[in-house]
Design a protein that fits this description.
single chain, alpha/beta, Rossmann fold, eight-stranded mixed sheet, two-stranded parallel ribbon, 8 helices, 38% helix, binds NADP nicotinamide-adenine-dinucleotide phosphate
Length: 256
């Protein structure tokens, strides 16, 4: 697949770049557009990463990622960056307040990426949003919603804009992100009432899996670490561990 990745300088975006270049996870091959000429990883994926500053460039190049410089707040630059490529999917993990305290990218940056994807006829778009956005507002306590209010408002705007874009989309709404290894028990659910912390690496794995899944098209997911039921926990033995793995796999298969 030929993938345009925004937000790859760090966090979930960098994890996604690593995983895409290391293995296919269902997203391998040269993709529908068959343009895997350069920047391909062992998986056959070709990843173009949008960067607005230099520090991560060498690390991404070392992975085999092609770096394109630009700011998602610049609509023309995004149109040009995607327009000159044959792409199968866009993944955006962008967010956060700029160091100069200026405009957030959570809505406007993602809007420009979505517009550019539509213009360049990219068939697929995956957006990393946040728990508490849109109808998942019920998953968080009111004081947290109040604190995160401005961010969640922008995330919700971006989600709605993507859903109305005509692109085949997937939205993933993580809770608190952890910089620790994945447990292997993480799943995606459409249940909007759940919230919980999750490793960035796990969000990346689930995102990459969505790329290769028709069941993830036009869906909004909450990622979380699957917990055993109270009865399963009571067993606290090998059977429980096997059981939780089976339940987790079933849940995952049902959702994706
Ligand atoms: N942190 C949490 O607990 C949490 C919880 C729920 C959801 N989220 C969301 O999950 C996503 C990933 O979070 P993260 O903590 O792993 O990553 P992050 O540290 O928030 O990184 C954000 C990325 O977006 C890029 N970016 C921001 N504005 C941009 C712009 N105008 N143009 C181009 N790139 C831009 C940043 O590039 P630079 O290096 O140039 O700044 C960086 O690569 C974010 O959307 C975040 O809002 C986070």
């Amino acid at each position: 697949m030929n993938i345009f990745l925004a937000g790859a300088s760090r966090g979930v975006g960098y994890e996604i770049a690593q995983q895409l270049m290391a293995n296919g996870n269902g997203a391998n091959g040269n993709g529908a557009n068959g343009n895997g000429a350069s920047g391909n990883g062992a998986s056959g994926n070709s990843v173009v990463a949008l960067l607005r500053s230099a520090p991560a460039e060498a690390d991404l190049n070392a992975l085999g990622v092609i770096v394109v410089k630009g700011d998602a707040l610049d609509a023309d630059a995004m149109a040009q960056a995607m327009g000159e490529r044959s792409l199968d999917a866009v993944i955006s993990t962008i967010g956060g307040l700029p160091s100069d305290g200026g405009v957030r990218a959570d809505f406007l940056g993602n809007k420009h990426l979505i517009d550019a994807a539509v213009g360049a006829k990219v068939p697929r778009f995956i957006l990393i949003s946040s728990i508490g956005s849109g109808n998942s507002v019920v998953a968080l306590p009111p004081n947290v919603i109040e604190t995160l209010g401005p961010v969640l408002k922008e995330k919700a705007q971006a989600e709605a804009y993507l859903a109305a874009s005509g692109l085949a989309y997937t939205v993933i709404r993580p809770g608190g992100l952890l910089s620790e290894p994945a447990t292997g028990q993480e799943i995606l659910t459409e249940d909007v009432t759940v919230a919980g912390s999750i490793p960035r690496a796990a969000v990346a794995t689930l995102t990459v899996r969505c790329l290769g899944s028709d069941k993830a098209v036009n869906k909004i997911f909450q990622p979380l670490i699957y917990r055993c039921s109270a009865r399963q926990q009571w067993l606290r033995c090998l059977i429980c561990r096997i059981c939780s793995r089976i339940c987790s796999a079933k849940e995952y298969a049902r959702r994706i």
